[in-house]
Amino acid sequence: MKLSLRNAGWRVRGQDIVHEASLNFEAGQMTAIIGPNGAGKSTLLRLASGLLPPTSGDVWIDGAPITRFSSACLAARRAMLMQDSPLRAQFLLRELVAMGGRISAPFMNTSVRLELAGQLLERVGLAAFSERDVMDLSGGERQRVHLARVLMQLEAAAHGTGRPPGFLLLDEPISAQDLSRQHLVLNLARAHALAGGGVVVVIHDLNWAAACADHIVVMHEGAIYAQGPPEQVLTNALASHVFGLEDGRVRMHVGSGKPYVLPHDMMCQS
């Protein structure tokens, strides 16, 4: 399965927020979208999800325009974790996670859905809190509950079919996580890709992007500035032009061959 943007753009009040973006997101691959604040990263992800209709171009998934799919069929093919997931209602964690499969897998047995929800809570490190109210959690814990919910949406749809899960779209999924939980969340994303699902993640941390992604897309001033493998894209020239770093700040990790940037170098720069 493939998720494609074909000259997709979004224009508001005469300004191009995303300009003629053409991209292919592949199943079995993890793509990281990076770029400065206001570059159009989250808008690009919302266009890819179908939640934001493009003002130009179109978006295709599974060989057809995304607009042709019913809500249930689309929910089975892609799930999106928003940067902010506002929630005011009171739900037990297992109930909230189980809700993720109601549209994508409406005929799944309730006991099976709850069992899968429990497994997902275990994977995001919150199994001990399954009977707690989601509003009693910290911001980082709530972020991981919502990750379990969107994973539920895709895994419930694929359950028992022999098909891989759909596309997992993540907007800043580690913004509220400590370092060990950042690793946990991104490992779960990698596992989703290894299981045959596609992953697209908007992320500000260049080091995590380079370490985890198979493919990097760089957004700059509303357009795709560069894309490709991390070691080819995240160069000193790009870091200088797009992120304003001094030349020589990007290094190569000996063990992985992936690029990285040391904050210590940047502090010395200032």
UniProtKB/TrEMBL annotation:
Domain of life assignment: Bacteria
Matching SMART domains: AAA
GO molecular function: ATP binding; ATP hydrolysis activity
Keyword field: ATP-binding, Nucleotide-binding, Translocase, Transport
Residue ranges of domain ABC transporter in the record: 3-246
Role this protein plays: Part of the ABC transporter complex HmuTUV involved in hemin import. Responsible for energy coupling to the transport system.
Protein name (Swiss-Prot/TrEMBL): Phosphonates import ATP-binding protein PhnC
Organism: Acetobacter ascendens
